[in-house]
Amino acid sequence: MLMWWEMIKTYLRCQKGQGMVEYGLILALIAVVVIGALTLMGTNLQGMFNNVAGNVK
TM spans, by residue (predicted)? Predict the structure, then answer.
């Protein structure tokens, strides 16, 4: 009976760690998408900020 209890505890611990890894992978994917979007739009954003800064002066 004690062996079954240990197996259940081990299984539950593994599931928690697996969930954290999945959250980490999702965050990494979001970061890659954001970096890619900013890289593609970088020159357009720089031009817009320069235009705004020129109009503020």
Answer: 21-41
